[in-house]
Each structure stands twice: as structure tokens, then as C-alpha cells.
């Protein structure tokens, strides 16, 4: 198992290097630059800025410098937000996104799994149909619609919830709901089909024939097998959600990492593009490794090679 | 068992960190006195006075800092940190006399030397301040200073209360520049100890204005509290101002409707028709013009007659009032309302003998005649023209309007939408045929906008090159006689309008939502709101 993890981490390093290199090339191919504005910056100022951040050097040299700095843990200064380092931007924004995303994933898991089970056990009945309709809506409706509807209903019309910032627990309700909506629906559907699959297995019939209590058979035998696809989904979901959602952050004025990720691209803030991309990629890959390990813990029959 | 312990521990850690996060962010909200909650823009890229080039950043800086001079509620230059100031006869030496007992927000003394340091800092090539040339280009020794020899800049402090500035050429509007946010003083010790990072952290953001920053959560809010060390602190009624850094206009509008903010600058354009009768909706002109550039160096735009035809075919009233929903005003001149002539009167009223250069409505016959004279009767022989714009605000509807308006005189127009970051360099390089353009003035002297068409100006996107125009602008820069200067500036506008150097379309306005609870705030023609003397009444 240790050998397996080391091997996976080795591959991860190569993957991250490839992603960083590709991002570096692509972002430099796109026209524009970080120091442009509607009003022209004087040629001296432009030259001084480029010299200050090393953008006057040949691209390959810029690449080498960046990679060597990054290896030493220095991801550089933001070119747009003068005075902020990329590391400090990630360090202040990621916890915000992680908190909201973490609560959202927890909510989705705690709601989706039981709903999926209930749905599967009541297959074809009214409860199942209601859950399926809601879950389908949850998957089909894009998040900006959910955000807007929440904002309009609870923020503006009813005035129950604050519409911006994160200064109290009440502020968390709308962004977390908006973020949790899709994964809840997805987990519900995934859980339902997986549960149905397991319930039809021979060993479940055997268990029931032996006279095992319905709940014991469900929790001890069925759930543990049925939950495997959820675990697979949970890793990337967690990585994806905790790094922030551009739309949710924008609408609820949440100072998270998602906005930074998109904003840096439109701003051509090269160092922030690189930093956030590498960070996101690393997180995504690590989560996948974690999922594999958790997999093994949940289902000892799985061999990691 | 071990596994269970670990998972319980993990869950506990997660819960604690989430809950502590919830309470921590609420901590710094407390401030004494009334708080005014507003939205004037998204997260500013910087609030370092020397580095800022954005209007919303400048607006925040104006609350935290005060320059030598300031703009009062009537739009006039008023004393700021300097109580009095005078100009030598040749217009080359400006002397500012500071108030006694000025202090920084941290309580330490502020002297004329702080201005000397700050102005030299603006020239520092290592800082690369975007506005250095605009605000200090006329100061003697600027060229050496921007090259690295900062002490060459002829700004000196003979004593703690006097600042002397020597100019290399007369600059009658230098008082406007002295009120410009870029030239605010910054504290040398703090800046040198923290580098660029001094301006990103409330604890090192030492300022000298009516307010000082007590909290900045990027992309969330900036809180500025009343600065008790400000010389006019007794006139400040608010305890604090919260600038909500909301990016999305719809979110801004929701926050305004729910009463969380009392002032909203970014109003969604689709809501404007329903707001126009509201007494909380305001429209006020700012100095600036939405115009269209064509590349005057390529065919057919090198022919003034073609340019004339394109100009006359436009119904500016329709553009401003219908396409732009009345949030702009029709532009019949290049220089609109708000620009100040050398005698303090309105530059626009004095232009062209008080008559507009262009008709407010379309003159299709005139346009067709010009096109025929140019050798393209009914547009025959003209190639398909291409209009480039980025997609924001009214840019696309305007492009579509132009397409239909020019079709009436037989011109076929194709629209190309270009991403913002690619659009500006493309336009600057002259790599286009026709492109959207616009300018909002930094200060009210007309040269700020007329310079755009000077042949070597880096913002001369249309590559307009006219010797008479350049000569008129040169004269305006060298003369010390206000009347001669005024005449030269008007002549420049006459020439560019006669030549149809560009297509003025609409004058910019600011439009915003403001609760009647706000009293004593005002808006300037530079696009800034002044909340420092405001109050919130129930």
C-alpha cells in the first residue's frame, strides 16, 4: 500500500509539471498582457513594469525562472494586485472557499445518501417519484438560476437572509445551499441506482432468507457496498467544490478562490493563473489518491496495485 | 477502533475550524458611530495612491488620503492639506503652504517633506506608476527622475510647511493635479519598511485623509473609520464607511433593495427603465465621451469625406436616449459638459461660437452627399467595413445600431466582438478599421482629452496626424496667457471636428441608486463620490 501511494505520488508530480508547462505556454500564447488598460501606460512605465517582473526576458527563460522559483515554494507576486503574493492570495482565499465548499459537500453527502437509500427502498412508490423529480431538477438547473432564485426570494422579497458577505452563520445559508444543490441531487441518484443494484444481489437475498433484520442487512451489508461509487465521486467533488465556484462567489460576494481563478485569466495575471492552476491540479490529484486509499478501507477486497 | 477515533477527531477538527471561521470574520465589524454602507465598485486592484489608475480605486483613496488641494461640492478646487498656494508670474513656480499641525492617521507629524518623498516615489521607475507622466510630466527634472535619478525632480521643502514645485513649462491646471489622488502623500517609513505590501494590509495603511482603513477583506469589503487625527475631523459625522466590493450588478441591486447598502453604483442596465421615475435614481454628467475611432491611416478612412458621411448618418439622440436608455447624453461635440475653460467657464459653451459641431439627429442627405463627393455614391465601391468592440455595457447594442444606421447610406458593416484583454492592445496598435473608444477625464482641463488626438500620443488609437492640430496643442502647452491658451485649445477642437477625426457619440454620465437616508454626499464631474462629510439619517 505504501509502495502504491509512493508510485501514485510520483505520477502526480509528473502530471502537475505537465499541467504547469501547458498552462504556461497557453497563457503566453493568448494576446494581451497584465499591464494593459483603457488608458495607455507610458512606454517607460510599461518597460519598467516588465523589467520588474521579468517579463522582458525570453519566454523560455521566464519559464525556467518560474519553475525553479515554484520548486522552492515561491509562486511570485501578483502582477495585478500589487503588493500581494500569489501564496498570500491562495492562503487568504482558499480557507473561505474550503469552508463553504466543505459544508456544502458535507450537506450533500448527509442528504444525498439517505435520500438515495429511501428512494431505492421505496422503488416505484410515491416517495421515490418525488425524490427522483427533485433530484432531476437539481441536476438540470444551472447554479446561477438557483443563486438568483434564492437571492430574490430569501434576500430581497422575504428579507430573511443577508445577501452579501460572510459575517454570520446566516450569511452561509444561501451560498452553501446553492453549492450543495447539484451534488446532493447527483449523490441521491447515484446512491439510488447503486443501492438498487446491491439490493438485487444474491447475498442480500441470502441475508434476508437467514432472517437478518431489515435495518441490519441494509446498514451492514448493502450500504457498505452501495456507497463505493459515492466515495469515488466524493474525491473530485470535494477538490472541485472547496476550490470555489465563480458564480456562487460572484452573486453572494464571497471572497473565495473561484473568482480569483477566473479573474486572473481575464486580467492576464500570469503568476496568479499559474499559482491557482497548480494548486487546483495538486488538490485534484491528491484527492484522487485519497479516494483510492479510502476505497481500500471501505472495501478490503480491493487490491491497490 | 483506531479508524473510528481518527474519523471522530477529523470531524471534530472540521467542525471547530468551520465554527471559528464563522465567528472570526464577524469580529472587526464593530466601529464607533454610524456606518455608511455603499458599493462603488468591485475589489480595487490597488489602493496605493501612486499605483492606482482606476476610478473606483481613486474614489476609495480620496476618502483615506488628502492631497495638497481637493475638489469641493461645487466642483471647484479647494484647500486640502495646503491652506494657501500661489504661482510665480512666469507660471513656472508653484508654492504650497501647508496647514499647521497636520498628522498621519497613526498620530505622527506630516510635513512638506512627506510630499517631496511621495512625489519622487511616483517617478520611481522601479515602482512604475501608471500616472507618473500625467501628473508630474511638466515638473522640471521629470525625465531624469523617471530614468532613475529621483532627486532631479524639482520638488522641495524649504521648511516643514512649504512645498515648492518648479515646472519646466507652464501648466495652468497644476492645481487640478495637486488635487489628484496619485499625488497624495504616503508615509515614507511605512512604505520603506513594507514595500508594495504596505497598501494591502490595514495595519500598515497609514493615511492622512478624513478616514483610514481599518479592515480590508479582498473581494468582500473595505472598512474605513473616521480618522481622529484629520485636521477637519470635527466636521466628519460618520463613524465609518463600508465599501462593499460587489462585482455583480444584480447582486448590488439585491443588496440595495434589501437595505444592506444605501448606495449602489453598479445598477443592472435591464433595471434602468423601471428605475427612471424613482427619486432614488440619479444621473449626473462626468467629463468624458463615448466615441468611435477609425484608423485614419488606411483607406477609406483616410478620406475626411468618408469620415464625415459616417458621422452625419448617426442619430445621436436615438443612441443616447433609446439604445443607451438615457444613461448617456447625445454628443454633438468632442468635448462635452464639465470641461473647464481657462477662465473657469464651460469649455463646451465656448466651443464653435456656442453652436454644436454636429447635429443631434441623423442627417442622411448630408451623409449621402459626402459619400458621393468622396466617390462612393450610395456606398458603391466601398468595401465591407469592420467594427471591433469588446462586449460590455452598451457596446454591442451600439454596434448593432451603427450597422443599421450606416446601412441607410449604403455602408455594410460587420461586427467583430473581441475579448477585452485583446481589444485594447489591438486598438492601440492600429490593428483595426473602426473601433469603439472612450475617455473619461482625469482632471477638468480640456488638454486631458484633446491630447488624445496629438500625433504622438500613445492613446491616439485613430492615428490622427494633423500638423495644424499638433501646432495648436503645442501652443496651448507653452503659453502662459490664459486667453491665448483657450483660443489654441478651441482651435484644436475646431480642426479635429472639421476633419472628423473621430465619431463622438455620447457623453458619459454616472448613474446610481442612493437612499434618501444619505445626506451631505456629492458627486464630481471626475466620476468620484464624496462621502466624507455625509451623514446617515433615519
Q: What about the largest sheet of chain B?
A: 11 strands, mixed
Number of strands of chain A: 0
Overall outline of chain A: flat
The proportion of strand residues of chain A reads: under 5%
User: Proportion of β residues of chain B?
Assistant: 15-25%
The name of the CATH topology of the largest domain in chain B is Dipeptide-binding Protein, domain 3
Using only C-alpha atoms, the radius of gyration of chain A works out to: 24 Å
Low-confidence stretches of chain B: 1-31
Distance between the termini of chain A: 8 Å
Shape of chain B: globular
Count all strands of chain B and give the number: 21
- The secondary-structure class of chain A comes to mainly alpha
Oligomer: heterodimer
Low-confidence stretches of chain A: none
- The helix content of chain A is over 70%
Number of helices of chain B: 18
Q: Can you identify the CATH superfamily of the largest domain in chain B?
A: Dipeptide-binding Protein, Domain 3
How many structural domains in the coordinates of chain B?
3
Q: What fraction, in percent, of the residue positions of chain B are helical?
A: 25-40%
**Which structural class best describes the helix and strand composition of chain B?**
alpha+beta
